[in-house]
Each structure stands twice: as C-alpha cells, then as structure tokens.
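Whiteboard transcription, Tuesday session. T.W. wrote the structure tokens on the left side:
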C-alpha cells in the first residue's frame, strides 16, 4: 500500500472517528440542555450552536466512510432481479453518476469555501465563528465521497450485491 493510500485511509478513518465523537457530543449537549431547562436555568448559547455545527460535521465527516463500508442508503430491488452481467453494468453506472454528483458538489463547496474566505464571512449567533470552518467540510467530504464511489466504478467490488433485503 502506497504512502498516499495509507494517508488517505488514515484521514478517512479519522474523519469517521470525529463523526462518532460528534454523535456523542450531540447526545451530551441535548441532555445538558434539557436538564438545564428543567431546573429553570437558561442553557448556554454556545450549547445549541455547537449542536448545530455538530450535526453538520457529523454528517459530512462520516459520509465518505459510510460509502466505503456500503453503509449509505441504496435500494437493490432492481439489481436483485438482474442477471450478474447486467447488474455489474447498472451498479457501475449508478456509482459513476454518484461520482459525477459528488464532484459537482465538491466543486460548488470549494467555491463556497473560497467565497467565505474572500468575504471574511462570520457566523454571528452565539459567538463570532469564521464561516469557512464550516464550509471546508463540503469540498473535503464530497471529494472523498467521489473517490469512494469511484472505487465501485473502477474496482473489483460492486456497490450492489444483487441481494434484495436488509444487509449487515
């Protein structure tokens, strides 16, 4: 395995770990917020905002790993009834369309990220937060999802197994 591939895989799993940590933070922040409200105390302003940011980061950082693990939602009702050669073609075409969509979203996300830097945009709710810190996740995540979907286009593994139903 090349050094670039090892670094990419390490980044992918690190992003998934941060995504998991965000899920834990969301649980903690909701519990703390509810407890504070129940005892008559106003929750901290940053608590709600950090939960919102956590939802974004959790989704964006975990998505490439989910694609690699085939944990994303896909329906196999059509591919389950196709013969194996047709299933391979359909599966690779669907993965190619996913690559195209992810590349387009990564491009637009990079444009948004650069616009946020150029304009020096800030999110000014609970505290001043540079908006580019939020939008950097778009090109990173969608770019990595494009790479992961491309593995299903050009690699030996298919996105669709041909088995309808619930998968482990």
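and on the right, the sequence the group agreed on:
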């Amino acid at each position: 395995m090349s050094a670039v591939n090892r670094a990419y895989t390490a980044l992918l799993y690190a992003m998934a770990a941060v995504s998991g940590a965000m899920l834990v933070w969301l649980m903690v922040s909701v519990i703390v917020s509810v407890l504070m409200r129940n005892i008559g105390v106003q929750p901290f302003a940053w608590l709600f905002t950090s939960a919102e940011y956590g939802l974004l980061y959790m989704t964006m950082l975990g998505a490439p790993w989910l694609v690699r693990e085939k944990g994303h939602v896909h329906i196999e009702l059509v591919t389950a009834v196709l013969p194996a050669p047709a299933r391979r073609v359909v599966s690779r075409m669907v993965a190619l369309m996913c690559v195209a969509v992810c590349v387009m979203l990564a491009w637009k996300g990079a444009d948004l990220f650069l616009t946020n830097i150029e304009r020096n945009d800030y999110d000014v709710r609970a505290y001043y937060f540079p908006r580019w810190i939020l939008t950097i996740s778009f090109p990173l995540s969608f770019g990595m999802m494009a790479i992961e979907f491309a593995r299903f286009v050009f690699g030996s593994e298919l996105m669709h197994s041909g088995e309808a139903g619930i998968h482990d």
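Someone added at the bottom: The chain has six helices and two strands.
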